[in-house]
């Protein structure tokens, strides 16, 4: 009977060691999951920051394109006004040339 009790105690001790080993593995797995979760949060934050930055860049590009269109319109108006002034100057020169002294 002592031998059976001794074998039972050895078996219980082996089970306790196995349970301790499994607990250690589970703790390590939980730590790994926590690290992965943290890494995923960082990826989400960085991705959101990149999205906001891309949106800002896009808005700035749209603003620059609008300024370029405005500048183009202003240049066309300036060229048109210069052409009108040139035509007026020619007409005035022609008119003045008739009154030579």
Number of strands: 0
From the alpha carbons, calculate the radius of gyration and give it in angstroms: 43 Å
- H/E element sequence: H
The major beta sheet can be summarized as:
none
Q: Pairing-aware structural class of the strands and helices?
A: mainly alpha
Beta-strand level of the residues, as a percent range? Answer: under 5%
Oligomer: single chain
Helix share bin: over 70%
Poorly predicted runs are: none
Report on this model:
The chain is an all-alpha fold and 101 residues long. The chain has 1 helix and no strands. It is rod-shaped and about 150 Å long.
Summarize the structure.
This protein has 101 residues and is mainly α.
Layout of strands and helices, then pairs:
Layout: H1 2-97
Keywords for this structure?
101 residues, mainly alpha, 1 helix
């Amino acid at each position: 009977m002592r031998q059976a009790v001794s074998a039972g105690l050895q078996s219980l001790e082996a089970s306790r060691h196995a349970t301790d080993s499994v607990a250690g593995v589970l703790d390590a797995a939980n730590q790994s999951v926590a690290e992965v979760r943290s890494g995923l949060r960082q990826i989400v934050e960085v991705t959101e920051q990149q999205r906001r930055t891309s949106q800002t860049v896009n808005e700035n590009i749209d603003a620059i394109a609008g300024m370029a269109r405005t500048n183009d319109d202003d240049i066309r108006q300036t060229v048109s006004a210069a052409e009108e002034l040139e035509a007026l100057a020619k007409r005035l020169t022609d008119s003045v040339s008739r009154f030579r002294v």
